[in-house]
Design goal:
- The protein is an alpha/beta fold.
- The protein has 5 helices and 10 strands, in the order E-E-H-E-H-H-E-E-H-E-H-E-E-E-E.
Length: 188
């Protein structure tokens, strides 16, 4: 059965966006981008909220045609276009780029997605992740801690009515100072 993986970059103080939705502090160099391509290229699908989907759709469909794109960006453009996307939105009725739209997080529908053949499913963001967490639907966490303290912005995890016990399964430090913390959910 496929897993649902929450993958996000955060600051040392737990923010995934700085003030004004700023993400310019994300340290993505060629080493980290290639690592992401290797990980995401093996996925069976991307789970995204509407905002994330629209941001990705603004850039990635044609990123490989930009002469300033790095080799890793060129590679990811193809990964993003070809990988199935599951977009959760109450306002979108359909979406391009190999996408299926869901109006809400329904555990039975998620179970059907997980039961399909193929690679794991990866998601990012905070609001959609909170919905999945409340329903106990996230199996693994891949948190990329960036060496920066922001002091404000949007937190990755807000106080909520859920708790997830985790087991550390991997750490990895990248040359730019980013550290991957990979956890699996422990059944309670």
């Amino acid at each position: 059965m496929r897993k649902i993986i929450l993958q996000n970059a955060v600051s040392v103080d737990g923010f995934f966006e700085g003030p004004g939705r700023d993400i310019s502090w994300h340290l993505v160099d060629e080493e980290l981008h290639q690592h992401m391509n290797d990980e995401l290229g093996a996925m069976g699908g991307f789970i995204e909220g509407r905002v994330t989907f629209e941001l990705m759709a603004e850039y990635w469909p044609a990123a490989d045609q930009n002469p300033d794109s790095s080799p890793a960006e060129v590679q990811f453009a193809d990964i993003w276009r070809e990988t199935p996307k599951y977009v959760f939105s109450r306002t979108l009725k359909k979406a391009p780029w190999n996408s299926t739209v869901f109006a809400d997080v329904v555990p039975e529908q998620i179970a059907e997605l997980k039961a399909q053949a193929g690679g794991d499913l990866v998601m990012s963001g905070a609001d959609l992740a909170a919905s999945f967490l409340r329903k106990g639907l996230i199996d693994e966490f891949r948190i990329y801690v960036n060496p920066v303290v922001l002091g404000g912005g949007r937190r990755m995890f807000n106080p909520a009515e859920y708790k997830a016990n985790l087991r550390l399964v991997e750490t990895r430090a990248f040359g730019n100072g980013v550290v991957l913390l990979r956890y699996e959910r422990v059944a309670t």
